DNA sequence: ATTCTTACA
DNA sequence: TGTAAGTA
């Protein structure tokens, strides 16, 4: 499929999809006209990439664990590289801190909503 | 009409 | 990310 359709189906702007391709996160064939031709599987792949990106994982890291991404949310290394494990551990800690922050704000918003609904409804 | 590349702020 | 130019 072309970039426009992929953009619609993934919610990621065409510009970002080109960006992902530049960084080797996704691959595309080229039509005779020069247009990118993405495999069907790219839709799910972009979904995984966005999940990682939203979680705060830098493209640099995603690039390394991408070939190990399979089913939704599964990562595994047949041959663990000590350097990479250190990076992943650091990444895990950042994600933990971020998750705590997100939960805190979620609770704040939830509490506000409860108050308002009690006032309005 | 859609996409492509490049580049600056 | 918004934007613009000049193509195919």
UniProtKB/TrEMBL annotation:
Q: Which GO terms describe its molecular function?
A: DNA binding; DNA-binding transcription factor activity
Among InterPro entries, the record links this protein to: DNA-bd_dom_put_sf (IPR009061), MerR-type_HTH_dom (IPR000551), MerR_fam (IPR047057)
SMART domains in the record: HTH_MERR (SM00422)
Q: Which residues form the HTH merR-type domain?
A: 1-68
Q: Which SUPFAM superfamilies match?
A: Putative DNA-binding domain (SSF46955)
Q: Which domain of life is it from?
A: Bacteria
What's in the keyword line of the UniProt record? DNA-binding
Do you know which Gene3D superfamilies this protein is assigned to?
A: 1.10.1660.10
- What is the protein named? DNA-binding transcriptional MerR regulator
Lineage here is: Bacteria, Bacillati, Actinomycetota, Actinomycetes, Glycomycetales
């Amino acid at each position: 499929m072309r970039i426009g359709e992929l953009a619609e189906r993934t919610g990621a702007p065409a510009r970002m999809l080109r960006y992902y391709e530049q960084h080797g996160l996704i691959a595309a064939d080229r039509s005779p006209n020069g247009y990118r031709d993405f495999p069907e599987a790219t839709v799910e792949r972009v979904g995984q990439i966005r999940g990682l990106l939203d979680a705060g994982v830098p493209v640099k890291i995603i690039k390394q664990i991408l070939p190990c991404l399979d089913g939704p949310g599964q990562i595994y290394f047949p041959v663990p590289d000590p350097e990479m494990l250190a990076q992943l551990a650091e990444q895990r800690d950042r994600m933990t801190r971020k998750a705590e922050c997100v939960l805190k704000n979620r609770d704040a918003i939830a509490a506000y909503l409860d108050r308002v609904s009690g006032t309005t409804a």
